[in-house]
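WARN no homologs supplied; continuing
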Amino acid sequence: MTITDITTRIVRQSSALWYGPRPIPAGYPPYFDFPLTTIHTDEGIEGYTMDYGPLGQGRGSAHALHDIYYYDLVGQNPLHHEAIWQRFRAKQRHLYNFRETIWGNLDVALWDIKGKAAGMSIAVLLGKYRDKVPVYSSCPPQTVTTTEEVEEQVRLKIGQGFRGIKLQLSGGSEADIPRLRKARETAGADFPLMLDSSAELSFEDALKIGYELDDLKYEWFEEPFPDAHILQLKKLAQAIRTPVLAAETVGLFELPHYMVDAAIDIVRGDVHHKSGITGVMKALGMCEMMGYEFEIHTAASPLLDIANLHVGCATRLTRFLESHHPMFRFGLKGNPLEIREDGCQHCPVGPGLGVEIDWDWMDDHTVEILKGCSY
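OK structure emitted
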């Protein structure tokens, strides 16, 4: 089997879906562009993957994919994904202005092809561990600006059947601690709650919040500082009982330092941030050998989150999957990312990614199509 071409369509959604009911902030794009890439082969088997673009980067990343990686793929056997992945890795050495996420996305499409060629789901190819994973809901920050909104969102998410709730708060200890208390009061003593501060806190504020999380029995404290602040992460992890979850933005090859230095308690990652399915399985191997849990982060893009679901069903190290705003669950027939009555996402059983793309929906939302390479 040989890769013959690559096509990417830019799928557009209004930013109002994300920011509503509040207006789109000044200076932010009026739409999100999601690149949907197809890798074509001479046997007619196609592999699909996506990217996302909440800050206006979607169209740029689509052009980068075609300009940078086209000739690394065309003419190659897609079943030899490890050889292609290693070629991408070597090329990354001089791609100073790009992260490895773009070729990680391409790796997902190669696994989709491999599964279709074998007639097996990706989870089965990886060595399936389970058929489903519990799901928690992340409350978008614009929906939890007051304690009243926290209470409303917690009641809503519990009523929808989610197995946990993550608050995204970065207002500092004075503003956030009352909201954290309200969430615990509303959810009850034993319901899993998490906090993500999106790398916005000072160490002093994070310490105050961390002590409060200890008392409130939150499941984890996510990314209180930028991941690059490894010493601050280590100090916080040593000072509080609540597990510190971080390394979401850390590349695969920097990740071992966070574990060896005991800078964090739980590792964060997904197929987008950790170099595709091939890369995230290598990260999971590191974690298992060193005794770390690995919590899968949403990629906020439907095909990538389907890939995350397959990975989650091929490991015991992930307690939850993350479900974000409904706007990120578009364009797939049968709503495969919706939770079932048991509060879980169930792994697709069809070959490859195992989902059916709603091409009519995609056609209605496509604003540009890229094919081949620009040179």
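The domain at 124-346 is CATH 3.20.20.120 (TIM Barrel).
OK
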